[in-house]
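Thread amino acids onto this structure.
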């Protein structure tokens, strides 16, 4: 029913359109759904609909985790006409993404991302272009970002701006979304453009807010339907809106690139864009004709870094603050440790080692928040035999991170917030193999080190200066942990009080 409702809400139905849909689905499903005995098992697909009636498109990861209980850790599901092999549980996901990294390391580029990126950039690209952009982004991230004192200072500076905004609310309830998103966007801005923006800058606000809305829309049921039947796009309001937003976002980036180009000094790169422009120039001068270093690839790679690096980190941080308000006794222990070890000074990355409890809490926030539950879609690069099953080249593969982060065989209390998952008896921090929020293998998140540094510094500094509580009259129990599903899992709309600590 949910599926039919969604379709009717979003598509202006005409007889011709419905006939076209039916014809397409009939042809497509009969050419794609033939199954052989070696295929991973799964529910029998219905003609046209595949297994859609079994799936809640508003939270597909929940349906898929349930199906894995019945069909095992490798199974097939048909999203309408699209066949997907789903991998569940730590052992299976690791086996595919790490031990058979090459075979499972391609990206399945869904129609919506093909529309956005045309196979360019990093996140939704494959082949030599992907390799070149990923390698270049990683080295720029290393030069201007992660692991470097420079970026640590940038994050510490940004924390001060964020704290100022929190202070202005004087302990009264407010929604943390915008200030947190502005702060984490400024870290990517510093790395990409070489500068930060004022939170009040209307252009900056527009860019961040649009990127945020896009992430929500991308996870909507209607866009999943679009991915199954892309020819419906022009009739879908959400698709049109997304395309407009992406175009306007890219125009803004182009304006910023133009300004940087005018003031470019090849001997002094200010950030990722400068480095790209300098590299592009040197390739042109060498007379090489075919190169991945062209303007379109720059614009798409920059949008990728913003899209992948802002919402993810911001959402995780907001889950962290909300969980602290919900579990005040855990917040007490974090603050006790911070006060004892830092004695009032600013935190630096090195402090992570001497703050094992705080570190464990941040890891547990990431585990429970599970913000990319279905991972990004992968695709097999060749025919693969996996756990006794045959998976054809070009098959879409979803390695469910949700099933790893809550794997009953790996975690003592998979569904509850329990920082002890990351502590030994002596209270020392312990790494856990099944901690995989950044995925693993060939496509592992290239922003992992930066994100981890941001989460540690922002979280520690905010907890050092503020006590987080639910609004007056609301108890911790009433803070609802049911996520709102978008492309990432977000906390439901809520307000918190940030009470200044003396
Ligand atoms: C808490 C923060 C973050 C989380 C949980 C996260 C998680 C992920 C996940 C699950 C993937 C998909 C990996 C796969 O396909 O197997 C990914 C990919 C990616 N992430 Fe992150 N990420 C975070 C922060 C960042 C940051 C800060 C950046 C940028 C500076 C970034 C840039 C990227 C890029 C470019 C990709 C695509 C990699 C590729 O396709 O080769 N991420 N991330």
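Threaded sequence (502 positions):
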């Amino acid at each position: 029913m949910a599926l039919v409702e969604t379709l009717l809400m979003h598509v202006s139905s005409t007889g011709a359109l419905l006939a076209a849909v039916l014809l397409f689905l009939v042809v497509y499903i009969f050419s794609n759904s033939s199954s052989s005995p070696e295929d991973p098992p799964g529910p029998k697909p219905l003609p046209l609909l595949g297994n859609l009636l079994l799936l809640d498109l508003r939270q597909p990861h929940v349906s898929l985790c349930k199906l894995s209980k019945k069909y095992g850790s490798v199974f097939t599901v048909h999203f309408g006409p699209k066949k997907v092999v789903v991998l569940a549980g730590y052992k299976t996901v690791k086996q595919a993404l790490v031990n058979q990294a090459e075979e499972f390391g391609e990206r399945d580029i869904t129609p919506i991302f093909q529309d956005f990126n045309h196979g360019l950039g990093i996140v939704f690209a494959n082949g030599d272009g992907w390799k070149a952009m990923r390698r270049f982004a990683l080295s720029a991230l290393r030069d201007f970002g992660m692991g470097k004192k420079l970026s640590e200072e940038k994050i510490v500076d940004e924390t001060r701006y964020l704290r100022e905004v929190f202070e202005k609310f004087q302990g009264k309830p407010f929604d943390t979304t915008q200030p947190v998103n502005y702060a984490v966007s400024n870290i990517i801005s510093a790395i990409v453009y070489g500068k930060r923006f004022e939170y009040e800058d209307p252009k900056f606000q527009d860019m961040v807010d649009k990127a945020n809305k896009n992430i929500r829309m991308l996870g909507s049921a209607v866009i999943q339907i679009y991915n199954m039947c892309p020819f419906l796009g022009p009739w879908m309001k959400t698709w049109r809106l997304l395309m407009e937003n992406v175009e306007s976002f890219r125009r803004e980036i182009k304006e910023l690139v133009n300004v940087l180009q005018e003031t470019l000094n090849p001997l002094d790169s200010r950030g990722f864009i400068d480095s790209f422009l300098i590299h592009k120039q040197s390739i042109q001068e060498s007379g090489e004709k075919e190169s991945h270093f062209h303007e379109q690839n720059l614009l798409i790679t920059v949008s990728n870094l913003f899209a992948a690096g802002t919402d993810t980190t911001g959402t995780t941080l907001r889950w962290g603050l909300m969980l602290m308000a919900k579990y005040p006794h855990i917040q007490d222990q974090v603050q006790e440790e911070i006060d004892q070890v830092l004695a009032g000074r600013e935190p630096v990355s090195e402090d992570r080692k001497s703050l094992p409890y705080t570190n464990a809490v941040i890891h547990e926030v990431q585990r429970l928040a599970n913000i990319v539950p279905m991972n990004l879609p992968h695709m097999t690069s060749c025919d693969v035999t996996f756990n006794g099953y045959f998976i054809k080249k070009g098959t879409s593969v979803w390695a469910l991170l949700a099933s790893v982060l809550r794997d009953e065989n790996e975690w003592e209390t998979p569904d509850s917030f329990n920082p002890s998952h990351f502590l030994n008896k002596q209270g020392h921090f312990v790494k856990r193999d099944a901690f995989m929020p950044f995925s693993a293998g060939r496509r592992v998140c290239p922003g992992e080190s930066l994100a981890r540094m941001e989460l540690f510094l922002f979280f520690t500094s905010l907890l050092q200066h503020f006590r987080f509580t639910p609004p007056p009259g609301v108890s911790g129990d009433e803070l609802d942990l049911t996520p709102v599903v978008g492309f990432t899992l977000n906390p439901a709309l809520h307000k918190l009080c940030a009470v200044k600590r003396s």
